[in-house]
Design brief:
By secondary structure, this protein is of the alpha+beta class. The protein contains 13 helices and 39 strands. Helix 2 runs antiparallel to helix 13. The protein is globular and about 70 Å long.
């Protein structure tokens, strides 16, 4: 009998090819499927109006320009109709509150791409503190994760050519840190043996300006089985230090302090999140941690003094302990405070600890509720004197309330409004309700229902989910969903299933590895609960998810095909036999398991969508969307799933954007096109407008 795990049984293996003759053959298949899908969906009368509306939203001039602080400047990447790839620009911090700040263009991505005949996508910049004169700009060709890095002068606003001594790192999935003005710590692709099995850096090299990169000495090295290695440099005055780490898997890390030429192991659990902040260490265990006679549950936040840590003391102060329904979503640091963003049944609360008090003092911050709060600290610990040390930006939104950004200061509830997004759709009469569905094992799973008044079981309903990697689906404001779906008469449902982080690490760990089926059970339970409540019926119920969420909707489509009338499966994992062999897939084995291990494969094979398609079963006519330039989740997953469905006589739609990376699109034109195809498909399948 042929081993079902063997690639030799895969008749569509050739669709994984990205280069050479097989790659051309696969791309011809893609172009033919694209043409077929676009011919049908773009012919719908609602396609072009939706595309135009979404493009208008994406390019709107009244959007909030989100910023990153570097010294005295706020930096922003702005994309609109005139600048599809974007202007990287800046204004003084004091100018940001103006209705129309006097932005200075730092780099014009469209002009650069035109001059160099490259499809450049901006992937950020790493600036050297404390003067912020030099930075490394990351540029991706077509939006892939792999990017090249070039040194840029933020005073003259010019690249520094390599022939003039500028740093240049060729295209790769690199990790680069400034050690000093003339030295970089570089993890990149240096040839055979320099990458992990996941395709990320295995070595960190010390590269001196003016010397060949390939001759830079190796300073730190991990194992091929690691996910990656990396370095971080802390220039906080009085606490200067360099850390190295090995990511053993997605959730475990071996850490080292580089001191006097030695790598000193940091003696803490490998699955703990660790952050050094001046005289403090902040510790966030992902599993219960018993130390000094006390057990700190997973999801806690603990504070330890730096000096005490190096003396070997492990008696931390407790800043947060999770309780049922209450978990730590995130924390941020100002000069004297720790700000905690706490999730209460997927709505945000804000608390702060004043570390300048002895002992540290806790205060509840009065902030909007319910909805999503996020804190963006303005503190720069590497500046000797920071005038914004205790300032932060507070962002708030919910499903029906547009985003606002206010300037806040730790220790006070007073806030100054800075920016507010205008309403992008008419929410008059719409409501948000939270319900709980009972999953197959009895767990209560929360979900949100967003819609208009008087909607019943005939309402086209879109159920969205993710359920992986401890990612929480907090309420967000979406003009796209509002314009293309809600105001046209649809209902939106967001499921907070296990595998996500809505209730902390344990909510995530309950649906990993051999227990991944619980994510699918939870999602199916929400769908059934919607039907039981009379809010929809299968013919009117569509599901959508991307990446791990693509696996989610793919598995649910295969397991319960009669339950759904539409499936939008975006940049998905679908072939769980081969996912670990494709691009970054090996890095996710801590989430899903190892297909080459017989016990793990027994669980994977039970739900892997590609392997579980069966002849004679009527599946919903799904839409698979991916990107040729996605170098994180291989487009072969979506290609092969569509091909197998077609071979079984099952109709489906397929769209593969040639650019875009894992986000599926490289600019607003491509985003509007992709999203309009998805919504035109949903209206076709589910009826209505």
């Amino acid at each position: 009998m042929t081993d079902p795990r063997s690639a030799t049984t895969d008749e569509f293996l050739w669709l994984e090819a990205l280069e050479g003759e097989e790659g051309e053959r696969a791309l011809d298949w893609v172009k033919a499927r694209n043409a077929e899908s676009q011919a049908v969906l773009q012919a719908r009368p609602d396609f072009e109006p939706i595309r135009q509306e979404l493009l208008q939203l994406l390019n709107a001039q009244d959007r909030i320009p989100h910023v990153a602080r570097r010294g005295d400047w706020f930096y922003n990447l702005w994309q609109d109709e005139a600048h599809p790839r974007g202007l990287w620009r800046r204004c003084r911090i004091e100018e940001y509150a103006q209705p129309d700040p006097p932005w200075t263009t730092v780099l014009d991505l469209d002009a650069l791409g035109q001059a160099e005949q490259r499809s450049w996508v901006f992937h950020g910049a790493n600036a050297l503190t404390p003067d912020y004169r030099r930075c490394l700009v990351s540029l991706s060709d077509g939006g892939a994760d792999a990017a090249e890095m070039r040194e840029f002068d933020l005073e003259t606003l010019r690249f520094i050519p390599a022939e003039d001594g500028g740093f240049f790192v060729p295209e790769a999935k690199s990790d680069v840190e400034w050690l000093d003005a003339d030295t970089l710590l570089v993890g990149s692709d240096f040839g055979p043996g320099s990458l992990t099995d996941s395709g990320y850096p295995r070595q960190v090299r010390r590269w001196a300006r003016g010397t060949p990169l390939d001759q830079a000495p190796v300073l730190f090295e991990g194992e091929a089985s690691d996910v990656s290695v990396g370095a971080s440099v802390d220039r906080t005055p009085g606490y200067e230090r360099v850390f190295f780490s090995r990511s053993l898997d997605f959730y475990n890390e071996a850490r080292f302090l580089w001191r006097d030429g030695q790598m000193l192991p940091i003696d803490l659990p490998s699955d703990m999140s660790v952050h050094a902040h001046g005289p403090w260490w902040l510790l966030r265990p992902r599993s219960d941690w018993t130390v000094a006679g006390h057990t700190h549950p997973a999801g806690s936040l603990l504070l330890l003094e730096d000096e005490a840590f190096w003396r070997g003391e492990r008696q931390p102060r407790i800043l947060f302990t999770p309780t049922p329904g209450r978990s730590l979503d995130d924390y941020s640091l100002t000069h004297h405070h720790v700000l905690l963003t706490i999730s209460e049944h997927v709505a945000s609360r804000l608390e702060e600890w004043d570390l300048s008090s002895r002992p540290p003092a806790l205060r509840t911050v009065q902030a909007p509720f319910p909805g999503t709060l996020s804190v963006q600290t303005l503190h720069d610990p590497e500046l000797p004197q920071d005038r914004f040390g205790d300032d932060y930006l507070l962002h708030y939104c919910d499903f029906l309330t547009p985003d606002t950004v206010s300037l806040a200061r730790a220790g006070s509830d007073a806030r100054t409004p800075l920016k507010q997004r205008g309403a992008q759709f008419d929410a008059q009469g719409m409501t948000v309700q939270q319900f709980f569905a009972r999953s197959a094992d009895g767990e209560n799973v929360p979900y949100f229902v967003i819609g208009g008044p008087g909607q019943g079981a005939d309402t086209p309903t879109l159920l969205y989910g993710y359920g992986g990697f401890e990612v929480s689906l907090q309420p967000w404001y979406s003009g796209t969903n509002g314009r293309a779906w809600l105001t046209r008469g649809g209902r939106l449902v967001v499921a907070n299933i296990r595998g996500g982080g809505e209730y902390g690490p344990q909510w995530h760990q309950a649906a990993t590895g051999a227990h991944k089926q619980r994510s699918f059970d939870d999602f199916i339970a929400v769908a059934e609960d919607l039907i039981r409540r009379g809010l929809t019926r299968p013919e009117r119920l569509g599901i959508m998810g991307g990446s791990n969420g693509g696996l989610l909707v793919g598995a649910c489509m295969v397991q319960r095909p009669e339950l759904f009338g539409a499936v939008v499966c975006q940049v998905p994992l679908l072939d769980m036999r081969r996912y670990h062999l494709l691009l970054a897939g090996a890095s996710w084995m801590a989430e899903y398991g190892d297909p080459d291990d017989a016990q793990d494969w027994a669980a994977l094979s039970a739900y892997s969508p590609y392997q579980n398609l069966r002849p004679g079963v009527s599946y919903p006519r799904a839409l698979f969307a991916t990107s040729t330039r996605d170098d994180r989740v291989h487009p072969g997953h979506a290609r092969k799933m569509a091909a197998r469905l077609l071979s079984l006589g099952q109709a489906c739609y397929y769209y593969e954007n040639i650019e875009g990376g894992h986000g599926g699109a490289a600019d607003n034109q491509q985003r509007a096109q992709l999203q309009a195809l998805e919504f035109a498909y949903l209206w076709q399948q589910l009826g209505g407008a």
